[in-house]
């Protein structure tokens, strides 16, 4: 028996999402959802959870910096200096709160995949790795160094793909002279040590 993912629940999430983010971001989200489902097939992960987490991962991307800060502070979270300087980093954490409160998603695995999709974290769950990777390799992405290689690696060794993505992100941030979140470095270090 196959997995049915496009049902009333998924449709409800899609409709909320369409009003929350731009058309371009919505197209990206649908692409991440599909890519995450493919990776879930490859790694024996729950396809439905991957499909839903991929869909909603950027649900807070349309929020203003003040709204992002308000959302996480309301939860009792104290933003770091780097997050205060770059509030867009908070769209992942805020997204997990919005996914829970506005979309009504209760699955903790889905919510944490949303929470860590931007910086990753050391020792991610399979679902977290899948969303982190799908976000980077989805077919609409372009102009990323070695993207073809990362796409292929994602389907052969996802830990190595995570390390390659982190390295690219660190290079990109360095080039832009942007502050690096400690978690981004910790994720990179962890995955470099864990690839065969
Ligand atoms: O939301 P998306 O654009 O789909 O992707 P994302 O959630 O991975 O966010 C990507 C952006 O996040 C990209 O512009 C780089 C930025 N980013 C990732 N790690 C860090 C970071 N920005 C800062 N300042 N520090 C980080 O460590
Ligand atoms: Fe994002
Ligand atoms: Fe994204």
Q: What do you see in this structure?
A:
With 196 residues, this protein is mainly α. It contains eleven helices and no strands. α7 (108-115) packs across α8. The longest helix has 21 residues, at 23-43. It is globular. The model has no long low-confidence stretch (mean pLDDT 96). Bound molecules: 2'-deoxyguanosine-5'-diphosphate and fe (iii) ion (2 copies). 2'-deoxyguanosine-5'-diphosphate (DGI) is lined by residues 58, 61, 86, 89, 92, 117-119, 135, 169, 173, 178-181, 184. Residues 58, 61, 86, 89, 92, 117-119, 135, 169, 173, 178-181, 184 line the site of 2'-deoxyguanosine-5'-diphosphate (DGI).
**How is the biggest beta sheet arranged?**
none
| Residues in helices, as a percent range | 55-70%
Annotation field: number of helices: 11
Terminal CA distance: 35 Å
The run of helices and strands is HHHHHHHHHHH
Poorly predicted runs of 5 or more residues:
none
On the 0-100 scale, what is the average pLDDT? 96
Strand residue percentage: under 5%
Bound ligands, named by name, code or SMILES: 2'-deoxyguanosine-5'-diphosphate, fe (iii) ion
């Amino acid at each position: 028996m196959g997995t049915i993912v496009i049902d009333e629940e998924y449709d409800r999430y899609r409709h909320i999402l369409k009003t929350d983010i731009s058309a371009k971001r919505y197209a990206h989200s649908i692409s991440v959802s599909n890519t995450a489902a493919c990776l879930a097939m490859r790694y024996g992960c729950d396809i439905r959870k991957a499909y839903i987490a991929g869909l909603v991962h950027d649900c807070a991307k349309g929020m203003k910096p003040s709204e992002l800060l308000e959302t996480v502070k309301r939860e009792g979270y104290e933003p770091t200096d780097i997050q205060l300087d770059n509030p867009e980093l908070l769209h992942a954490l805020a997204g997990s709160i919005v996914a829970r409160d506005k979309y009504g998603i209760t699955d903790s695995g889905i919510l944490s995949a949303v929470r860590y999709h931007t910086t990753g974290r050391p020792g991610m769950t399979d679902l977290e790795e899948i969303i982190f990777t799908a976000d980077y390799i989805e077919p609409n992405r372009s102009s990323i160094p070695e993207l073809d290689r990362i796409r292929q690696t994602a389907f052969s060794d996802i830990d190595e793909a995570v390390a390659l993505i982190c390295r690219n992100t660190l290079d990109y941030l360095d080039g832009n002279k942007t502050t690096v979140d400690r978690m981004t470095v910790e994720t990179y270090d962890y995955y470099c040590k864990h690839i065969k």
